[in-house]
Amino acid sequence: MKQKLVFQSLLALAAVGFAMSVSTSCTPKDEHTGQWDDSVVGTATVSGVVKDTFDNPLADVDVTFMGTTVKREVRATAKTGGDGSFSVASVPSNARYITFSKQGYATVAYTLEAKRFVNEDNIVLEPVLEFSAAIIKGLVYDASTGKPWAGVQVTCGSTTTTTGTDGSFALEGLTLKGYTLTYTAADGTVYSRNISASQFIDGTAEVPAVYLGGESILPGGKKYQDLAECDIWYSNNYHGSDGFNGINDWTCGYMSAFNYYGQLRYEAEGCALFTDPAFGTKGDSENFNSYIYGRKRIEEGNKIMNVHLRTHYAGMRDPIHFDVAVVNLTDGVMKAELVGEQTHGSGDYKSYSFDLSKWVGKDVVLALGVYYNQKSDDLFHMPMRRICFAPEAVNGDDALPGTPVEGAAWRGFTQENVSSMTVNEKTSFTGRNLGYNSTRSYDGPGSDISPRHKHNPGGQQGYDLWRGTNHIGVNWAFQYVSKDVEPVNSEGYTIKTRSGVDANYNTPETYLYARFHITDANDKMHLLTRTFSSANPTVFRVTAVPVNTLKAVALAPVSNTANQAKASQNGCWEFIHEKGAGTPADYADFTYDLSAYKGQDVVIALGVYKGQTRDGEQKLCIYGIEME
């Protein structure tokens, strides 16, 4: 809707002046400077559409036309309509300084050249206003007492505030983008955290509470805030070795990507924790010498933590001692509680269980650690072949127990498992190998390799480089059924089928899955993928399982860019697309609409199936998964 120009009462006189200037002036430029002066040299219609940075039209934007002199006399005003449009006729050239302003947005200004009013009948502008009323809110507590901490300075760019008596703060007048918050307490404690643009909901980002100061809770100076921001264990099933009877081979040593303290090494027998004098004093039976740790939500479906392990160098008379420590983040508990120490002194594998029932419904940090209280001077190793979470004890590589998901009765895909997974809040996942092979050794101080093995140069690195990234391997759960994967394929993380077996469209050969809470920020999913055969199509299926129904639904893509693609049996799709070697645009983009699940928690599963071709492996190579 076009808006009518509103002139001030003296504008009629200005119009007369303009008419006179046209008839008497023939040189609109200053003869000395060559610049256009501020006299009226012409008129034009000025129109356009005002939008925000997300390409949405903005209504009720104040459009102000002013003179270009220091006084900035207002000569005309208008407002945009519901579609963001405005149109003002007969604007004189001496009103060519134009501003667009709206409460909560940064003002945009234009100074048009006077000659445009001579050469153009209609001047079109397309202003973009950036929202500038965003707010970041949070709370700060004293980790030593658990009470609110007043007077903490919180800085965000050039904006600074301090916490009130209740520990709260609010940083206002911000734009919607990423920020680094810096907290500075009176005792000298300084802490920083990053805020992404995606954390703003309706212009407000409420950041998790921060607990500053306090005593160390775990060895290595790990205080409450350090633990509250460690990596999340999204999955209920992790592997750490070259496999069980050749089924789950070297491609599943993802436990080497865990947060850790002390010494952790990726071995053929499992991801091994070491006892080492570099991290403690021999005979210490109270503090972990080395440990892995991560955040997790405990539910009925994952309340029993199971560890399948063996030892090196330890024996029955001098076993290795280990335990699980729990830090309750939900209740802000500032200490770790031990579940129950256990020992193992054999090179044979055995499964041990730790009961976490006490923390059902709580967000916790779990630390699995070894003690340096042995008699021998040898460095004891504790290789861990598997860690899993279930409603009951699990032995060895047995499938996770529970009730099968309706419509997806696959190995390990139980109702208890999918409903107790931790919600993944990330929206972008890479399948790239990050430039390194999983067996590359540590090259010493100053190398470009993460120093996980600096006390064991030459030790295998495993998937350490995935830690701290959005790699599919550590952010989605992996479950083999009949076939392994290729995690370091240079084109992308690859799940595949066996060769020489009959077609099966009901059970995947292997699959990945993750739990999401669907909102406007992630209700569309892009799968960037490729195949490796022009004659042997890859068959895959994307499955959604709403946690409130626990019934599987096969999803069809709303679009795809594959060279060849078509719907197949049982909700599967088959395609051929051999292009893609590290350039995202080259991969096939299968796009899925998840908006039907908005407001719900949904588990998304991606499986590869044995298609009609009996011979040859069918491969689903994943460059990345993007949600928007």
SSE topology:
Layout: E1 6-7, H1 11-24, E2 43-49, E3 51-52, E4 62-66, E5 74-79, E6 85-92, E7 97-101, E8 108-111, H2 116-119, E9 122-125, E10 128-129, E11 134-142, E12 153-156, E13 159-162, E14 168-174, E15 179-184, E16 190-195, E17 204-206, E18 210-212, H3 224-228, E19 237-239, E20 259-261, E21 264-267, E22 270-274, E23 284-297, E24 304-309, E25 320-328, E26 337-338, E27 342-344, E28 350-355, E29 363-372, E30 381-390, H4 415-420, E31 428-430, H5 472-475, E32 477-480, E33 485-486, E34 493-496, E35 510-517, E36 524-530, E37 538-546, E38 553-555, E39 559-560, E40 564-567, E41 573-576, E42 588-593, E43 601-609, E44 619-627
Parallel strand pairs: 2-9, 3-10, 11-17, 11-18
Antiparallel strand pairs: 1-5, 2-6, 4-5, 4-7, 7-8, 11-14, 12-13, 12-15, 15-16, 19-30, 20-23, 21-22, 22-30, 23-29, 24-28, 24-30, 25-26, 25-27, 25-29, 31-44, 32-35, 33-34, 34-44, 35-43, 36-42, 36-44, 37-38, 37-41, 37-43, 39-42, 40-41
Q: How would you describe this structure to a colleague?
A:
The protein is built from five helices and 44 strands. The chain is mostly beta strands and 628 residues long. It has four domains: 124 residues, Immunoglobulin-like (Sandwich), CATH 2.60.40; 81 residues, Immunoglobulins (Immunoglobulin-like, Sandwich), CATH 2.60.40.10; 165 residues, Jelly Rolls, CATH 2.60.120; 159 residues, Galactose-binding domain-like (Jelly Rolls, Sandwich), CATH 2.60.120. The strands form nine sheets. Strands 31, 33, 34, 36, 39, 42 and 44 form a seven-stranded antiparallel sheet that branches. Strands 32, 35, 37, 38, 40, 41 and 43 form a seven-stranded antiparallel sheet that branches. A hairpin with a 7-residue loop joins strand 4 and strand 5.
